[in-house]
Amino acid sequence: ADVGKPKAEVAAAFVTKRVPGVTVTPHFGAIQEQDEAFFKQFHIVVLGLDSIDARRWINSLICSFVKYDEDGKVEPGTAVPVVDGGTE
Predict the structure, then answer these.
(1) pTM here?
(2) Nearest one of 67, 56, 63 to 81, comparing CA atoms
(3) By C-alpha distance, which of 55, 39, 44 is closest to 82?
(4) What pLDDT, in 10s, does the model give residues 23-80?
(5) What's 24's DSSP letter?
(6) To pair with 48 at 20 to 30 A between CA atoms, which of 14, 27, 74, 84?
(7) Dihedral over Cα of 64, 67, 73, 75: its sign
(8) Around 47, how many Cα atoms within 13 Å sit in the side-chain half-sphere?
């Protein structure tokens, strides 16, 4: 039943159905076309990428969000967790 559908849509529907109270918004397309503000709006980023280049790009971007205080500790709210469920 899911054959031919974008995996972002299939995964979003599954998680939304399985986890009460969660909202999953699927996005389908080249992640490099989104700007930094797009990714900063999320509390967590779940990936289903098929490209190593795309994974490297998003890892670099998300890591660039992390800010540190003068003691070298991560400032709360600057780290965005990433779950990578992609395939190659």
Answers:
(1) 0.77
(2) 63
(3) 44
(4) 888 888 889 999 999 999 988 998 888 888 999 999 999 999 999 999 999 999 899 9
(5) -
(6) 74
(7) negative
(8) 23
Residue whose tokens read 């400032």: 75
Q: Are 58 and 31 within 8 A, CB to CB?
A: yes
> How many residues in total does the chain contain?
88
φ/ψ of 82, rounded to 5, equals -125, 130
The amino acid at residue 19 is: V
Distance CA 48, CA 28 (A): 10
Rounded distance, CA 78 to CA 28, Å?
25
